[in-house]
Amino acid sequence: MKTMKRLLAAALALTMALSLAACGGSSAPAATQAPAANAAPAETAAAVTENAVYRTLYASEVTTLNYLTTGTTNELTVLANVVDGLVEYDSLGNVQPALATDWESNEDATVWTFHIREGVNWVDKDGKVVAPVTANDWVSSAQYACDAVNDSDTFYTMSGVIAGADAYYDWTAYQMALANAVDGTDENGNPVKLITNEDGEQEVLEEVPEFAAADIGVKAVDDYTLEFTLESPRPYFLSMVSFGPYMPVYGPFLTECGSKFGTDNSTLLYNGAFILSTYEPQQQRILTKNPEYWDLDNVFLDAIQMTYNAEASSISTTMYQSGDVDQADVPSNLLSAMMADPATAALIHPTRADTSYAYWYLFNFDPNFDAEYEPDNWSIAVNNENFRKSVVHAFNRMPALATNDRVDPESLKNNTITPATFATASKDFAYYGDLAKYTEGDNFDQDLALQYRDKAVSELTAAGAKFPVKMLMCYNPTTPNWAEECQVVEQTIENILGADYIDIIVQAGPETGFLGAIRRTGKYAFMKCNWGADYADPETWTDPFADDSNYSFIFNSTDAGTLALYDEYLKLVADAKAITDDMDARYEAFAKAEAFLLDHAFAVPFSISSRSYQMCNLSDFDGQYASFGMANLRYKGKHLYSSSMGLEEYQKAYADWKAQLAG
Q1: If we measure between CA atoms, which residue out of 64, 61, 69 comes closest to residue 247?
Q2: Dihedral angle at the C-alpha atoms of 543, 546, 548, 549, nearest 10 degrees?
Q3: CA–CA gap between residue 384 and residue 453 (Å, rounded)
Q4: Per-residue pLDDT tens digits for 190-223
Q5: Angle, nearest 10°, between helix axes 446-462 and 385-394?
């Protein structure tokens, strides 16, 4: 019913606006065995053991604290620390028990049973106990996320996975649409309900079978036994349950809050290592250690104090050196000078390479930007494969990457959508099938770029396009170095293809709500986008290209050739998803789908998550780690040290960690 979901967008927006006005199977998983040893923290300085308050700055405010609906890193940076899920990860990426003490699945991995830890409590922002955590809390979160009225950005992690999730979503979406539908007749004169779609046209509202929330495949067998029933075998399901709608919520409190749930720290309950005790938007937010936490011995920070400052990126290094904060990103334009100064060089180190996020530049096939940027002309150009390939091959990524890492930009480069080292069966996923040629190569090729340009000029001229093609490229002004990166991208592509062929227009988006204002509404032509892996399987990297995604909007293209290619890609993905009993065959099939996407230039792989340089009194190596999900955002297990590592100390600690990771 994905068509239904798109048709009901207008009805959903109206409903949300009104509601906001009111207040015997497989063996036990690894975590049931003895936990793996954690990598030792790199003790470059003494650990702070009393009044360990980690102080940092932030420049972009959250838009919601509703962890059942948001998938945005900026918000999850807070939320990952205040609500625990069923499992967590140690510092080497090994799954560990959290709110589930153990678990098992049936033989075909379609039914998973989790045994919930007893004695864990929900507390309010003041640390007062409200209720015990029980299996019913996961039933409440699933029913909430699967209800279309709540418009969860992370519902997709249950869609097609949990039995009944889509049926309930479609039923609730239908009920929303029905409330705004009007009576009419179809082409045969039969009475029907009509709804206005997002294009302003009336369409027949197809009836949807009734489906009860209680029939969603998330059940509390008893207060401390939780059962998930899946639509099909999911060999990687365990890696899905620490994110989004798989996080618990206390049902009576959720009902009491209604649409206000997650609007401030008083409309949340907490069972995690920290409580959001202070929440003052555009001033400060403070996370304090949860005194009721079930694993309090492994929480070494007493508080995290986050102070808002719109100029954080430019003043944090000065504030770190004066002792006012414990972390500062070093802007790339200051890095060389600070590394040349012994006083600051001894405090600077990179962040760990993060393959849980990847970035690529996307072409938008449904432009909704202003007429001055010629969206109709862009539509003609973007649907021409030779035009897209001319841009892909003219894009020299190294100068752009150097705006983020002047010391080692090569370490950021990512040649595929799914990052190398993210997932492994008998070998690294990035080396399966046709994907290997991208992993081992580079798109940048000036001669090819010019060849494709010449072909595109001929074809686009015949199609009625005009030159230069205007290509609107937007950036978030609060993201360090993004403006400079866009300017470099503009110069490198235009210098090769010619300003008479393409005119790249760099434009700043809003400082707050950038995703909603630009990417999700299609107000760009070509832009850097990113994705964070939700679970440990290459399937997660296909989600941004699904036919209900707000990335690229390929499915909204009006070009028959583009749609035919896209349909072929979707079939390749579906074929890969169907393989659940042979991981090598599954990875081979997903690699074929991803290579097809790149072969036809629907995206330009760019980088893994930026490995910034910083001065920081935390260590990367004594906290949680995973190549997906929220583990890397959590402060549990981290120590506060009296000073930051230098580069040499960091490199040694990183080498030691990688050695332990390799076993």
Answers
A1: 69
A2: 50
A3: 11
A4: 898 888 887 788 889 999 999 999 999 999 999 9
A5: 150
